[in-house]
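Reviewer 2 asked us to include a model.

Predict the structure of this chain.
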Amino acid sequence: MEKQQSDKQLMDSANRTIGEIVADDYRTARVFEDHGIDFCCGGKIALSEICRDKGIELAVIERELAAVKVASLDRSLNYSAWELPFLVDFIVNTHHAYLHENMGQIAGYARKIAEVHGPNHPEVLEIAEIFSKIVTDLKDHLQYEEEVFFPAIKRCDAAGKSHAVPDTMDLESMRAGLEKLQQEHEEVGDAIHRIRHLAKDYDIPADACNTFRLTYQKLKEFEDDLHKHVHLENNILFPKTARFS
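Predicted model (structure tokens):
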């Protein structure tokens, strides 16, 4: 009987997407990161499928996922339980704030090491170019979310709580925004993965100066923050807005 229950749990988990698993418990993100599995932009892939594609035994992943869930979940990490307005404010005050404060500085560092180290490390020339485009694209992306998409979500949520009908224009803004924003997430995700590849997983060359080291550290920090940021939107915020459709 116990084996049948265990097999059923394994099958149920195998059929769930990576994004759903991490949305339920963010601690599981570490397991996927350790195996090089994209849980934010690639979050719509079923666990069984990604294991098959990467040649990883499903049972191994299952054991590791179970291990990180042993302790009680800290409420501060239970993002899927947060109400929409609170989640939106958290994204803006945490992840948008990080981007506004750091993107320009990182771009400046990337340009500097491209100028100094480009002749010996041509990869940093492409890294600087890619990151410059990321900055340009994200500025428009963040402005759209903060001025159009997020306010529409808050108004629709308030309407629902007061048993009123959400404004038609807000609903249209949300529907149009979902496709646009998810596509832009895919693009920035592909770009930062390209940077990681060029930087050889942010391996510091032997002849690197302090600015070179700092740039790679900042790029790694940027990628880590982006993964959590996109996860919160793609796998939690966006699905929650589906109830307004």
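The longest helix spans residues 123-161. The chain has a mean pLDDT of 90. We have added this to the supplementary material.
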